[in-house]
Amino acid sequence: PTPPEPLPIRRLQESLINRIAAGEIIHRPASALKELVENCLDAGATSVRVTVKDGGMKLLQIQDNGCGIRKSDLPILAERFTTSKLSTFSDLSHIRTYGFRGEALASMSHVAHLSVVTKTKSDSCAWKAYYSDGVLVEPKAGQTSDPKPTAGNDGTTIIVEDMFYNTPTRLSSLRSASEEYSRILDVLTKYAVHNPRVSFVCKKAGSSSPDLSTPSASAVTHTIRLLYGHSISKELIHIETSSSAHQTRKIDDMDEDDPIDDPEAWTAEAHVTNANYQAKKTVFLLFINHRLVESSRMKRAFEAVYNGILPKSSFPFIYLSLEIDPRSVDVNVHPTKREVHFLNEDTIVEKISDAIQQALAVQNHSRAFAYQT
Ligand code: ADP
Ligand code: MG
């Protein structure tokens, strides 16, 4: 058969390019929520309240009591690559906030109806703004417009409605509302465990009783008990280890603002279940530099540790917070790339595995001892 006539190459429309790019960043309501929660935490919030309709497809609303957004910043808030968190390339190597790419809100404005209510401490009223395709608009009309004064508390409320209304294929790739809602609850549950000082509340719109609710100023083990239950929390072992576990340098000598100048330094804190607890599947909460991430390599390594002490086909609960020098992990990974890799990964995973193994052995030993006496 003869090849077809070549078709002319055309430039894609800007709005179409943006919509496609946004779909790459925002996969589903739960991935939008993760970005929004990280923004609340970056803003120093101690309260994060989430309201959801139809698994987040109809409505995803996040209210925080953080620093708010300056009114003068609202016009460029949802533009691509606008951020308050990064200004020079060298900032990238010691970035301490979650965000820095300035893409989340922009993306949402391209695939959903986005509105923002925000108030800083020094504002006398709150301001409400609507966005479409990166720019301020009149609600439900295409005209650009200024933010409107409104009543509101200090902090920010982000309202995302009709997610993927303009990208039908993305919309049809979503599961049922209940499936999307359980993914939302999963993300919030994990962030709540990792941020026990922050109160998280999540409910369906119109419902008076929340499906998730944690107090502020709590502790990790309390939050785990509240969200994962007593059967897990009563079997937890607390483990702390670090690259300097065998070095002489004193922690007291270190200053928060003056981090040890060793790009290979790391610290790990974990809460893991002992041999008394057996689940059908591993529950693995992994935070690297306070970001929720995934690492199948780590998961496999830790499961191997438990292989020796748990009966066949039973698995542990593991919550691990790992902090490594931002220079050792590629912070510039694409937001959708959840699987992370970092410098000296094998050594670090091995050291943490050893620490878990030792802690489990000590406990097993004292248990045997308790039976004897
Ligand atoms: P990034 O977090 O990468 O900077 P985003 O698109 O998520 O990009 O947010 C853009 C900017 O909007 C942030 O840098 C921040 O200044 C502001 N912002 C977003 N959400 C909040 C919030 N909940 N509270 C205060 N400021 C916010
Ligand atoms: Mg962000």
TrEMBL record:
Organism: Collybia nuda
Full protein segment contained here: 10 to 382 of 735
Residue ranges of domain DNA mismatch repair protein S5 in the record: 224-361
BP-aspect Gene Ontology terms: meiosis I cell cycle process; mismatch repair
Similarity comment: family membership: Belongs to the DNA mismatch repair MutL/HexB family.
Record localization: Nucleus
GO MF annotation, one: mismatched DNA binding
Keywords from the UniProt entry: DNA damage, DNA repair, Nucleus
GO cellular component assignments: MutLalpha complex
Protein's UniProt name: DNA mismatch repair protein MutL
